[in-house]
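Quick board copy: two proteins, each given as sequence then tokens.
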Amino acid sequence: MSDRVLEIRGLTVQYGLGADAVQAVRDVTLTLHRGEVLGLAGESGSGKSTLAYGMTRLLPPPGVVRGGEVLFHTDDGETVDVLRMRDAELRRFRWAEVALVFQGAMNSLNPVQRVSTQLMDVIKAHAPRSSAMSRKARARELLALVNISADRLDSYPHQLSGGMRQRVMIAMALALEPRVVIMDEPTTALDVVVQRQILSTLAELRERLGFSVVFITHDLSLLAEFADRIAIMYGGRVVEEAASADLYRTPLHPYSDGLLRSFPALKGPRRELSGIPGSPPDLRAMPAGCAFHPRCPRAMDRCGDHSPELGVPTGHAGDDRTVACWLHPVV
């Protein structure tokens, strides 16, 4: 997984313009490698979905990308900046190279179109010369890929269960065999059994097809076993990034530790759930210094005055992890 497929460098996204603009993503830098699952975790409002839509230029108004680069590395060895693509290039790029599974499958699927029509439309948009027969055959293959019977092709979304609708969205995202799939809360509102089925399907497909995944969720417990690396976001910034096993065992940032203590352990000794006091910050009036310090049980005077930089913490040079916290001086 040493090959880079997608690099986000200094991405900044805001809503609105002028003095009333709200910065929802602040100078985020991340790297996604080939075949890797990168998890993005954090509370609602931390900037996870805005980051995903900003990097693919799908931000609804009044969202605006104010700075940074989103570099995609092609199989030919070329590097292209998604933020500087022309509209025609962007239309060819989306779904063919980077696909999205949007949050809320019932809202993402057209309620008055059959599943077959929606799958075939994706293929037709990128391969207009393909025949209707070949598109129908490909739609059957895609449903089989996510373990849905072909007789569901003529169903409407409301005739499918929540888990099946989500798997249809995954099938649609894989229609053109993209190299990167971004999944925004793909298991929201599904019960834990169906969540497990969705994650098992994703893990199997990733092994078989070799695509990379950006998996966005507020539930850190889902990422602990599914993701290779996890980036924790708070107040629009990445505050910690590490291999999933390292972050799960030894979280460095108090916010990461609070997230981990907010759900019960499935194995090992019973532990008390503590959660995180307070509420996420108001992006219109961010606190001075470290954005987390008003809620942090280990805050110091310095935390309220100066914002820590994200960097490699002392003593962890070989661990491939970064943190932004005054408790851990960076190299």
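And the next:
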Amino acid sequence: MLIVGLNPAAENILGISARRAIGEPVLRLLDDEPELRDILSRVSKTGDHYANEMRLAPTEVHAEERIVDCRVSPIDCDEAALIVEITDVTRRARISRENALLIQHGAGRQMIRQLAHEIKNPLGGIRGAAQLLERQLDDDELREYTDVVISETDRLVSLVDTLLGPGGPPNKAPVNVHELLEYVVRIIEAENKPTLKIKRDYDPGLPLIDLDRDHIVQAFLNLVRNAATALEGQGVITLRSRAVLNYTIGDTRHRVIASIEIEDDGPGIPDDLQDSIFYPLVTSRPDGTGLGLPAAQELLSRHGGLIEFESRPGRTVFLVRIPLDQAQST
């Protein structure tokens, strides 16, 4: 399983020159990837062709995890016994995931609007009937029951309004996203113990962006508060900002976007929730409403943006993508 040849594309993917790689075990260059080890063993024994999708861990050359299609075939060429073909499909997989998130958000929003319509109409009738009944009662003890009906009706109306989110188009003005993040940090620090640490890794070159301050603050607050809750007040939250060139959100390609990352070192999102966390009322917490993430996604969608995430035990990152050219997102 020693490398006898490497083309330029493989040099780029593996982050090593052919001169240094030749003679090295291929598995050593891929962190002894178990799936690849299994495929190499099968092809060597059976002579069949095998292909699989794998994830490559971050390296000194490539800072982020990559998704690759790997195909291994037998070959009889000089010293070579196997040929390993690796294709980087990270961007393709990411676009597919983004489209799935957009579809999920659209379906969630449609469901919310239908639920709101079905719930708010009868709630108004219930509240009105309870108020009329209250006027007919002389017994204060009985009025306590009508007060409960009215207060619970108001609570449900408030819940529906939260599901629907703020009405009207965003009220955009030039803002510094770092100032918004710092405003959110002050709120989170006031709510939590000093054992919760918040680190910053900001790109000072990010320009002002035309955004609705209240909308974006609410979205950031929902995300950072979720991270603090996952850490139970003890751990590290890292806020990171970067400019990303030539980024596609949905069907729109943007010359440059702001990428805001909210990372925590908590337990991660349960696997069974990762495909549905942006649907309303989906939560892993007994006291959670499941409204924070859908609301944040809705607020970002009004700016042509998108929230993505990556999660595993010890590292969960929510990535907020905001186009710098908001003229395209109005």
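Board note added afterward: The two ends are 55 Å apart (CA to CA).
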